[in-house]
Every structure is written in structure tokens, then in C-alpha cells.
Amino acid sequence: MTSAPIAPAALPTDVAVLSRLEPGLVERLRHEALTVPQDWALEYGEYQNGGWHTLSLLNDSGDPRDVTIRDCARVRATTLLEQMPAVSELLTGLGVRVMWARLARLDAGAFLWEHRDYGELSGAERHRLHVPLVSNTSAYLVLGGTKVHMSVGRVWRLTPTSPHGVCNRFGPSRIHLIIDCYADEALRKLDHGEAPEPGDAELLPSPDQAQIDEVVATATGLADLGYDHAAETALLELFYQFALPEGRAYDLISDMYTELHRADDAKRWRSKKDVMLGRS
Amino acid sequence: MSSRLLNNIAAVNLPRQFGLLEKAIGVIGRSSTVHSLHVRGSLAAGTADRLSDLDFIVAVHDPSFGPFIRIIDTLMSAELGALLPGWRDTIVARMGGLGYVFLVPHEGVLQQIDLYAVPVSRLDTVLARTKAMPVYQADGERFQRHSQQVDWLINSTLDRPYTTRELLVEILVLGHMIHKRIARGQRYVAYAEMFALHTAAKNLIKAALAPGSAFYGWYQLGEEIGTTPIGRQCLAGLDRLISGNPIPQSGDLTAALNIVLELAERAAPDAVAGLRPAIAAYRYYLEQM
Question: Which stretches does DSSP call E strand in A89-153?
Fold first, then answer.
């Protein structure tokens, strides 16, 4: 996979840098994240291509492998968090009202496809804090046609109710501490209004029709040979290479199957688009 | 009982490549146009070590050979996470097909997959020239009719000059190979591959700055390329490159890659820019080896 040229940009409004962490603390958090977790859980399979794994730190069951997030009236430490004192100290110190806290590992070549979060939850306002612990420049979030690399050493806020996706194209594995929390005064106080740094955000290029046609032709060639999954992946990856209108990558897959006279597959991807983008 | 326990121990001590081998067979064999898959090289010879590459022969029914070649890069990227487009292998012998080398991160390590695609009509010729073991065989008839169109595709692909991007990929693949030679203490092969890397760097400069060159190999570089400031800077880089240790050690390889990337940035910036994130990851994995 190659890269198209990109231009520097401001952070999208749904992403912000809240505060900085002490380098010594980051090292201790990273050490725990790399040495303690085992038996990572694979969940949300329909949202990803198989390389996104999580373990819970705070939830209402105390089980680290209980990773399907939901509203929790009161969270408690999982058996994993009990073994991670630095992470525990950080979570307490943030002072926010936590809905769920997880460690998330995104392996080399892994993608979380374009989607909206929180659609199945109550209407309470909530946000997602990201504390990157291990990352690399090929790991990034895409939101509104902007590529955001969440660098290590800072606390980031993401409001994941807009369509977004995440990838780690080449690795090594990316590990983030992810805290879903309710909007309140504590969260507002956490926002120190850190200025973004050069390289945090870049605008993805708008594709011209020839570029789209070329990828569609390759994807169609893959599907013709029976490599449906690779064909779908090639089209879904366009979301990470170009600034596309919402849901366009899903439409391209449906259109491809329509062209191949595979009406059932075209319909399946139209339904999947609705699920992923929270329209059903 | 003891045999089962030994099998259990063997299973947990399988080289890392086996997981990737299994995955690659599952991915490539998914198409009904693939007639069979065979492993060759050290895996087939029983001499594989933890650094060994995965050497495949993929036999594709003749009518689908061209379409298969057209999608091979995307297939390897989408399904196996190949770091770079496949390098059209010029080291493998001409046996009637097309060879490509891919670098694939697997369990935190960069693995090399050598994939030799061959039309079914030429499979017997290939199998007669190399030690190979079948690992996948599709049901159904074997399509044998020979196609001149496939021959034309193979020959025109082999004869087509490399682009600067392909040469950059070649350099990176060679760097990975040399790293393995150094780790194994294979001095002669390290020497040969380092010379191949120097040659690829020279070819990259020529492809970028003298694409219509009428001169052979290393001849007339100064006269043809060294007439402009950028040409002289690239040749100065090439000079530093070929002045390094002919039998490289790890530090020599790092220095060589630094020089090559610097001169590639100067001679073919678009080629470097298009692969920049992949190159960053490549360098990380090389350091971890």
C-alpha cells in the first residue's frame, strides 16, 4: 500500500488535545501496558479486519474480558487493573466520571472501518479519552477527511459520534488507554487547551475519479477471481487514503457487487453501511 | 502417549513462519483460479531456520494468469499486510512464470514471502527445475492448454525496465535479505547482495536522471549524470555507497540504507514520498531483527 500526498491541517472539532503527561509517568504506563495484559479479547468483529483487541480496566463486572461497552451506573476495577498500579493511579487522577475504561491494541495491518459509536447507548453526553502509550506514524484516526496521529505523551479527547475510522497500516502494534466518560465539570477541567503540534493532523487529498476507478477496477478483479474479502478491504481502505463523503467506501462495495450481478451481496453491504454509520 | 506429548512440544516450537504459511495458503488458495500451491526453497529442503523466507509456487489456470498478476499486490497488502508492493524478482531463475518478493510483518517480525506465479501449462517445467512440496491442490481438471498471450505477458513484464519506485522497493528488499545474511554469517552471499544493492541504487539514479540512457551498466555515469548539481550530488552519494565495506556488517548496512534513501530523496522524491510510512516501518522492523 502506498501513500497519497497530504497537507497539514487543524484538528477536527471532534478531536482535541486536553493535557500533557509527565514523561516518567508515560514510561511507567507503557511498561505496564507492554508487560501485564494477556489473553486480549477480540470483540466488535464486524467493525474491523481482525487486528483490534481490547481488555477492560474499569467496568461493572470486574472481568477484563468483558469488553462490550455499555452504560455502567458504577464502575469497578477489573482484575487486570489491580495489577497495573500506574494505570490505576492515572485513572483516579483524571477525576472524570468513567463509563468504561479499556486498553486497546491495534496490530500491524489492522483497521477499524468507518463507523459511529455510542448509537446503542442512552442519550447522555459522553466523550472518549485516548492516552496513547505505544504508537507509530502509520497508526492514525480519520475523521471528516482529516488524518490525526494521536501521539504519545498527551491526553486526547475524541467525540466518536461522527463517522471515523482507525488504522495501523504497517505496525508495530499501537496500544492506547481508552476511557469513555460522561460530560461533566471534571472533564471540562481536564481540558488545558493544549495546542496541537505540527504533524498531529493532515488533510487527506480529495480523489479524482480516475483514482477511484483504478481501485474499483482492481477490487472488481479481485472479486472476479474469488477474493471477495480482499476486494472489500481494498475499497474500505480508500477511507484512509482520501477525503471521502460519509459512507462512500460502503457504496463503492455495493456498486461493485451490483456491477457483478450479485444483488444479495450488494444488499448486504447497503445494510452494513447503515449499521456501521448508526442509521439502523 | 510420549509421541503425542512430543508433537505438542513441536507445535509450540514451530518457527514463526508456519503461522504465516498457513495464513498465506488460506488466502491465496481461496480463488478457484488457483490450481495448486507448492513450497520450495529451504522449507521444502528441510533446512529452514527462524530467518528463512516463505518460498511459494502458485499455479494459476492460464486464462486467469494475467488477472491474477494484476491483483497480486493488492491481495498481499489487503490480506497479509505486505509492507511494500511486490518486488519483481530478478534473482530467481526464468522458469516460465513471474516471481515477486513481499515483506510482511508477522508477530512483530518482518517476514519475506517469495511468490512465484506460474501458468498451469508451465507448472511441470517449473517443478522439474526446483525442489518443491505441494501444500494445496484444488479439485477439478487441470487446464493444460498453452497460451501465447500468457507468454507475451510474462516476457513483456520481465523485459520492462523498472520504475524508480520499483527500484526503491528492490533496494529495501535487498536490505532485508542482506540483514539475514549478516545474521547468519553468510559472507559471500552478503557480498553479492550488497553489490546488487549498489547496482539498484545506480539504476535508480539512472532511471530518475537519465531515463533514456544509451550507455550500459556503470559506463559514462559522470558524463551523462554528473553534468548538473543534482546529478553530481547523487553520484557523490553513490561514490560513498560503493566505498563502504564490500562484505557488510550491520552498521555498514544501516549506513548504506541511509545513503540510498538520501540519494533517492534527491533523485526520485515522489517515489520516496509515496512509500514514506512503509519505509519508516521497514526501518523499525530491521532494527528489531
Answer: 98-106, 110-115, 126-134, 139-143, 146-148
